[in-house]
Amino acid sequence: MRVALDAMGGDFAPVNPVAGAVQALREYSDFSVALVGDESKVRAEIAKHDIRGFEDRIAYVHASQVVDMNDSGLDSVRRKKDSSISRAVDLVKAGQADAVVSAGHTGALVAAATIKLRTLPGIRRAGLAVLVPTPTVGYLLIDAGANIDPSPEDIVGYAVMGTIYTREILGRPNPRVGLMSIGTEESKGNDFTLECFRLLKPAPINFVGNVEGHGLFSKPVDVVVTDGFIGNILLKTVEGLSSSIFAWLKSELKKSPVRMLGAWLSRGAFYAIRGQINTEEYGGTPLLGINGICIKSHGNATPKTIKNAIRVARELVAQKVNARIVEAITQSHEEIAAH
Amino acid sequence: MRVALDAMGGDFAPVNPVAGAVQALREYSDFSVALVGDESKVRAEIAKHDIRGFEDRIAYVHASQVVDMNDSGLDSVRRKKDSSISRAVDLVKAGQADAVVSAGHTGALVAAATIKLRTLPGIRRAGLAVLVPTPTVGYLLIDAGANIDPSPEDIVGYAVMGTIYTREILGRPNPRVGLMSIGTEESKGNDFTLECFRLLKPAPINFVGNVEGHGLFSKPVDVVVTDGFIGNILLKTVEGLSSSIFAWLKSELKKSPVRMLGAWLSRGAFYAIRGQINTEEYGGTPLLGINGICIKSHGNATPKTIKNAIRVARELVAQKVNARIVEAITQSHEEIAAH
Questions:
Q1: Model's pTM, two decimal places?
Q2: ipTM
């Protein structure tokens, strides 16, 4: 198995992607990596690591350009043909890699993957599937921002793909799927979500109806489907609010020596939560629906994040998730049509 | 000044509304209250309080029906003409009250207010304006769920109304207004938000551009405008996540005697945050844009919440907020038209 890694993607590239690749190569023996990016910079980074024993599992693919945050995703595919993201996706297209991993520009990865690899049969729009942590097991949010203007049929696709991913990769037997809305009753929502609800009911998934913001945490489902506009706002709000609350608590805990002592004594509680909401562990967000395996890692990815993103890519390839999605989508189209 | 209070609204009615009214009557001497609801139940509740000194400031207005959570907001106005919400709004319409306060069904209050009192000149859709707490001063989210399908012009109305409210009632000199979107750049968003952006730029407000989920907490603005569908999802998510994090922390802190001791020593930090995010203090959410003062209080309102909702209603009446909104909206229409 071969993973194409965008070595120039993310806020700490090429340092963290290269270090993450080395960690993954050391930990998992079943894959090789193509480091895609400015070859001299990437080799200089590799030189800092001890790669004895697995140097033959590293290939270098030069790419002279980098997509930066000011680029538009779609334009970058046309104008920066030699970007590390585009070249990494090209490797998958040419059959020279089984999966692509990038911590770079989300829009550029979505556009390059959609244009070059196309979507799976029966899927019109890909969706980013993020695992959002909660005190219990967390839920998969799809779409977290790949497409801001999906159709209700695309939402059904997200529900089916989210179900397959949650079952096959996260190991939950019969994933409960909820539709993001403004009330739990079937009648609540806007025209778009009402039509989504109508289509989700006959789909061969465990659809449990609408979920609200409160319900994301108090009555958790396994998969939450929504359009990429709302999904992106939600994801960033959840991330922003979580860090804000902990930063707030930290500043309050530092206000007196007694509070500081108390915080020190109870530090285990904070570590336990930090461990569970740590995005490093999840590593990457699959872009589901693409005819190829694409993993988006967080822009501030650490080496450990990248290592785990590579782990997720390996699992998706090994579990043949795309073949299972195609099978389930075909069945879904048949059941909705028969309804 | 006279406030019409829906004595049957909320999860703990008539107990909490009546107790809150009594607290407000004791604390503020400049208003009287009309308690609207099942008169015998309301009088039985009043009998539990010592109202000597202000009993002549309490009127009882009987209403035989209550809107419950299974009713549709719009239908409730037509079918439950004698509901406590409808009767309370009727008092404002008839000039027998200056403001209405309800902890009951949001949709029913929005529908009754919009149909019976109409919107202000220049405003087509009312918006619920919720103050969301943050470690700094918090921001006003408008619309938090009054209308799920506004036009871009309605969003400009929310921006203008939010500015007036934040300046006049919250006392912030030059409120910064942000548009909820998926990227801070002007080019980021969907067709709807791009059009909102175009209209907000020439409006006579301090428009600072798009805000993202992260930015709500790290680079706070004073007013965040969005449609009622996204606003409602956002508000419930923020509420749900905040309580979920604190509940999670509590359960972790209870796992060992040492952690419990630590939590006890540092309890001041938790109390400080709880004090600031306590919705009781804000009391109620104004429904801005209605030709009349309407305050929606949380369904789980305590007596203190209701007291504070009445305080907010009094301030809105005293500050002549609606006259200022009409003035600002006229100016806004002129500037956008000239642009």
A1: 0.89
A2: 0.86
